[in-house]
Design brief:
Layout: H1 8-24, E1 31-32, E2 65-74, H2 79-86, H3 93-106, E3 122-131, E4 137-148, E5 156-161, E6 170-172, E7 214-217, E8 223-225, E9 230-237, E10 243-248, E11 254-260, E12 262-263, E13 272-273, E14 278-281, E15 292-299, E16 302-304, H4 306-309, H5 323-339
Parallel strand pairs: 1-2
Antiparallel strand pairs: 2-3, 3-4, 4-5, 5-6, 7-15, 8-14, 9-10, 9-13, 10-11, 11-15, 12-14, 15-16
Helix pairs in contact: 2-3
This protein binds zinc ion.
């Protein structure tokens, strides 16, 4: 048998060449596809099969495809329905549903989506649509929103902006103030509220009574969240309220939560709670014939309209170093929002 002599130096040469080759190979970047004109969704009545995206050219790709999508619509019956109609042909149903939740999350310091919306309210949305190599389509990010409430004076705007150093982006209004505030507008997350848009009826008495709080119909056991940082001043049974918690906030305002099935652990007078933390669970204790949460805002012992009492003043401003970058983003986002044509004008 012939002896094969391998010189050690050849290994070194091969290894070096391999390293050079690896170094020279371009890295596979996430491919970004920016539509020059935002895709306009304006085909009410046309129901293409879900996942079958007519205008979108699906390229064979082993990378994610990312594009931006501008959607606009009018709210006729509910936020879900409006987004469902506006996103037809552009997003699968699951993504359209998710979008309603995202919208509620973005404005959770400003708008109680289960209460504050009226027929005729308009929204414009700019979203990043991500298509996975397996064909799944999701909304990866909401870049901007304009929400024009019929009762409101100015449209609410939200612009997504990543400040360097923070892992998640925040939403700012057009003037560069953070949408975050000291109080959440609702004690339940929008996705858990079962009340139907437009229903202004009391879940138990049928008629909407001139009663001192807001009732949220939700499944028994739904987590109830503190609307702001504060201290528990009452946790126990109280007449018609059933299992009730009162939280005093720094500005002296008290938030009240009634009819709860049970409380989260350690809820007793003196306990400190943080905004969004779970304080208990929806139930039907006290004067309640169905599971719901009674929510009240009290100032000086008197119940106030949460819509007015929780009106937030501007949040933290954009750091001064980021202002010019933000202004560029804002101009771009608002211009793109303007190009979205309203999908479901008449109904
Ligand atoms: Zn009530």
């Amino acid at each position: 048998m012939k002896q094969v002599r391998v010189r050690p130096v050849s290994y070194a040469v091969v290894a070096t060449l391999a390293l050079v080759a690896i170094w020279l190979t371009p890295s596979l970047e996430q491919r970004k596809v920016f539509a020059l004109h935002p895709v306009v969704v304006a085909r009410p009545g046309v129901e293409p099969a879900d996942f079958h995206l007519n205008p979108l050219v699906v390229e064979a790709s082993n990378t994610d495809l990312l594009d931006t999508l501008a959607i606009a619509g009018v709210i006729h019956s509910s936020l879900y329905n409006a987004l469902n109609e506006s996103g037809v042909g552009q997003l699968p149903p699951s993504a359209r549903h998710q979008l309603a939740w995202s919208l509620a999350d973005i404005f959770e310091y400003k708008v109680d989506m289960s209460r504050d919306l009226r027929a005729g309210d308009k929204f414009h949305l700019l979203v990043e649509r991500l298509q996975k190599p397996n064909g799944a389509i999701i909304v990866s990010k909401v870049l901007g929103v304009r929400l024009a409430l019929s009762g409101g004076t100015n449209p609410l705007e939200a612009i997504h902006f990543d400040t360097p150093g923070s892992s998640t982006g925040q939403y700012y209004d057009a003037s560069g103030m953070s949408l975050r505030a000291a109080f959440l507008r609702a004690p339940l997350t929008f996705r858990r509220i079962s009340s139907i848009f437009g229903a202004r009826k009391h879940p138990i008495f049928g008629q909407w009574r001139n009663h001192t709080g807001t009732d949220y119909a939700a499944a028994e056991g739904t987590p109830v969240r503190a609307i702001g940082d504060g201290v528990v001043i009452f946790a126990g049974r109280k007449g018609g309220y059933g299992n009730m918690i009162d939280i005093r906030h720094r500005n002296g305002m008290v938030s009240r939560y009634g009819h709860m099935r049970n409380f989260a652990p350690a809820m007793r007078p003196g306990t400190r709670v943080t905004m969004g933390s779970t304080i208990g669970y929806v139930g039907m204790t006290g004067w309640a014939t169905g599971p719901h949460l009674h929510f009240e805002i009290r100032v000086g012992g008197v119940a106030h309209d949460p819509k007015l009492a929780l009106q937030s003043r501007g949040g933290e401003p954009i750091p001064s170093g980021e202002r010019s970058l933000f202004q560029k983003m804002r101009t771009q986002t608002l211009a793109s929002l303007n190009q979205a044509r309203v999908a479901n004008v008449s109904e």
